[in-house]
Amino acid sequence: MRRKRFSPEHIIRILKDAEAGLKIIDICRKYGISDQSFYNWRNKYSGMEISNVQRLNPLTDESRKLKRLVAYIRLLEKTSNA
Questions:
Q1: DSSP 27-70
Q2: N or C terminus: fewer CB in 10 A for the chain?
């Protein structure tokens, strides 16, 4: 899996630059991102603070683990019924 270039904390700082009044074109050029990436990030992270993202990361990891556990249990049930 490809490593992400920007962390969520860094993305929020980039979005704060836009809120401060910098032009989106200049921000994209400065950080080497496409305008589509910027708008996708804005849709995903708008209104968030860095502390919110830091709380969100462990919850996302826990959710991923629980989904894997449920999938594993269903696989076991399916194989035991066969």
A1: HHHHHT--HHHHHHHHHHHTT--HHHHHHHHHHHHHHHHHHHHH
A2: N
Is the domain defined by 1-48 classed in CATH 1.10.10? yes
The DSSP call for residue 49 is -
**Span 34-69, pLDDT tens digits:** 999 999 999 988 888 887 777 877 888 899 999 999
Which residue in 55, 45, 56, 34 sits closest to 10, CA to CA? 45
Q: What residue ranges do the domains of the chain occupy?
A: 1-48, 49-82
The span from the CA of 24 to the CA of 38, in Å, is: 8
Cβ–Cβ under 8 Å, residues 12 and 42? no
Residues in Cβ contact with 11 at an 8 Å cutoff, skipping those fewer than 6 apart? 41, 45
